[in-house]
């Protein structure tokens, strides 16, 4: 494994070192990261471990690499990522998975506002975000494809682990929510239903990986009750565009 000390380096210097190391070894460890942005941008065919807290847009435009972050991440993690995995052993900030069109983000803890905004499926790619804890407001805003899975671990006895205005403008994809009670979202633009066997089968592999990455009890998580939020295609925001 190649090692990079990020102390005192700017993000351009870090990414140049990553590319140089990747020629010799696909496994790279970065230590003493402290807020540098854009680490791992457009990276492919590399396993990158980040020790410390990276700045905004870690893994932006990711194209097949695996990034493990051993602490928290800041905003716009996985911005417009195309393929690969980002695994966060902490929480992630606002706009996690912004406009992602492929790959998977696993977050052990919570995420901030607007996670999954503008997510979209692209050809055979289905982007997915798995969130272990709770989310801020505007989750899945304008979501056009892919899956968002909220497990609510640690929040089972409290409120539903969602902020306000979930799925505003959603017109594709699915949001899965592990909870005993359905979310109270009053709108005719969304359908909220209890997950059936087919729905659960769709997310099983993601939850298996989540459980493996963060040492969680897969059987307990998968046997819980889930709800699914999908757009109501019979009323796709027509009143916003026509008076008829």
3D structure, described in words:
This protein has 244 residues and is of the alpha/beta class. The chain has helices spanning 11-24, 197-214, 218-222, and strands at 2-5, 27-34, 47-53, 63-69, 83-88, 104-107, 128-131, 144-150, 172-178, 190-194, 226-231. An 11-stranded mixed sheet has the order 1-2-3-4-5-6-7-8-9-11-10, with helices on both faces. It is elongated and about 50 Å long. The relative contact order is 0.09. The model has no long low-confidence stretch (mean pLDDT 93). One of its GO terms (molecular function) is oxidoreductase activity. Residues 29-183 form the Glutamate synthase alpha subunit C-terminal domain.
Spatial extent as radius of gyration:
18 Å
What share of residues is helical? Answer: 10-25%
Overall SS class: alpha/beta
Number of strands: 11
Largest sheet: 11 strands, mixed
Q: What are its keywords?
A:
244 residues, eleven-stranded mixed beta sheet, 3 helices, alpha/beta, 27% strand, 15% helix
Summary?
The chain is α/β, with parallel strands linked by helices and 244 residues long. It is built from three helices and eleven strands.
Task: Give the SSE layout.
Blueprint lengths: L1 E4 L5 H14 L2 E8 L12 E7 L9 E7 L13 E6 L15 E4 L20 E4 L12 E7 L21 E7 L11 E5 L2 H18 L3 H5 L3 E6 L13
Parallel strand pairs: 1-2, 2-3, 3-4, 4-5, 5-6, 6-7, 7-8, 8-9
Antiparallel strand pairs: 9-11, 10-11
């Amino acid at each position: 494994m190649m090692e990079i000390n990020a102390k005192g380096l700017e993000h351009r210097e870090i990414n140049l070192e990553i590319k140089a190391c990747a020629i010799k070894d696909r496994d790279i460890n970065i230590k003493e990261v402290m807020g540098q942005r854009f680490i791992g941008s457009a990276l492919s065919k590399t396993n990158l471990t980040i020790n410390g807290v990276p700045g905004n847009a870690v893994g932006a435009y990711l194209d097949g690499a695996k990034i493990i972050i051993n602490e928290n991440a800041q905003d716009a993690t996985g911005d417009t990522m195309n393929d690969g995995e980002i695994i966060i052993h902490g929480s992630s900030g606002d706009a996690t998975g912004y406009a992602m069109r492929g790959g998977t983000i696993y977050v052990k803890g919570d995420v901030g506002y607007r996670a999954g905004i503008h997510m979209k499926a692209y050809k055979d790619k289905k982007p997915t975000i798995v969130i272990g804890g709770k989310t801020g407001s505007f989750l899945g805003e304008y979501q056009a494809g892919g899956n968002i899975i909220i497990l609510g671990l640690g929040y089972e006895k409290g409120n539903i682990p969602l902020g306000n205005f979930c799925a505003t403008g959603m017109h594709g994809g699915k949001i899965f929510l592990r909870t005993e009670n359905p979310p109270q979202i009053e709108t005719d633009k969304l359908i909220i239903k209890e997950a059936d066997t087919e729905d659960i089968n769709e997310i099983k592999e993601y939850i298996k990986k989540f459980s493996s990455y963060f040492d969680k009890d897969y059987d307990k998580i998968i046997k819980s009750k889930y709800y699914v939020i999908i757009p109501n295609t019979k009323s796709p925001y027509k009143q916003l565009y026509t008076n008829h």
